[in-house]
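Re: Re: ligand-bound prediction request (bumping)

Still looking for help on this. To restate: I need the protein modeled with benzoyl coenzyme A bound, output as structure tokens. Inputs repeated here so nobody has to scroll up.
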Amino acid sequence: MEQKPSAPVEDPALVAAFEARIAAGESIEPKDWMPERYRKQLTRMMSQHAHSEIVGMLPEGNWITRAPSLRRKMSLIAKVQDEAGHGLYIYCGVETLGVDRHELVTQLLDGRAKYSSIFNYPTLSWADMGVIGWLVDGAAIVNQTVLAKASYGPYARAMIRICKEENFHKRQGYEICATLATGTPAQKAMVQDAVNRFWWPALMMFGPSDANSPNSAELLKWRVKRKTNDELRQRFVNLTVPQAAAIGLTLPDPDLHQDAETGDWVFGAIDWPEFFEVIAGNGPCNRERLAARNKAHDEGAWVRAAASAYAAKHDRRATEAA
Ligand code: BYC
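Reply:
Sorry for the wait, this slipped through. Here it is.
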């Protein structure tokens, strides 16, 4: 009689050895034994991260044809291309966990998968390109610099390279903001408006508050995450407040003040109902983003077919020659 597959019962000795390796700061590699929950959590988090990079190309791609100069256009194209590279790199990382990337892409296209909330906001002006580089890539760096020490080797190594590129993105974004902030009154107003729209969504990128973050305990225990959502959010605010002041921009938070004892910049209440609406698929651009990804996927079918035919031809020739 055929046996039904049952939930894996994990050998306590294997689990203990795995946890000892984590405690010793060792890196876990694809062929190493790992608990199923560790594999599942990493697959979830890494695939969401890869999707974020790919969907993250859309808000900026929207401005490539409208960049104000050749230099700006070239660096924006390069940035968007870098994001594609990050997505593909992380999809490869997820494949080391035994999941086929076609399955992941299908989950994104049919709306089952999450990606970062930030990319569901519209990019309304050229200044948004500066603010995304400065704040969005800036937030990503704060998060990912810590993930570069994650216990899973392929993810940690991907983060090292990605952070180097994000640093460049952040600098070019900040330079756009600095240029606009010292430009005409209309340019300064445009960049201030972009900061006003992106500040709170950038804080939401770090995820729900620690009290409301169901995955954190497990991820921290296994050293995938090394800092909590709130710790990283605070670090980002502390780094960003002086950067805004340095270029004469304000942050849209009347409650923002520095704590004399800790030195932390204390910020006002985040609109969590808005965050949960966005991650449930009801943000300002969720539907538009998914429609754009599906359109690009459908229109790229001939490229995938051509690449497969080309690969098959080479395989056939190699077999004939052997
Ligand atoms: N947006 O238990 P929690 C970039 C979900 S792209 C959407 O705290 P966790 C760039 C969360 O998934 C940078 N969903 O989760 C690209 C979970 O849902 P499920 C992207 C969010 O995993 C182009 C639920 O809420 N970076 O740099 O412990 C241009 C409960 O949350 C968000 C990464 O992906 C969100 N903001 O912590 C420019 C970094 N926050 O799965 C720039 C890697 C939470 O249980 N990921 N959720 O249904 C992480 O570090 C962590 O996964 C998070 C969330 C901090 C995001």
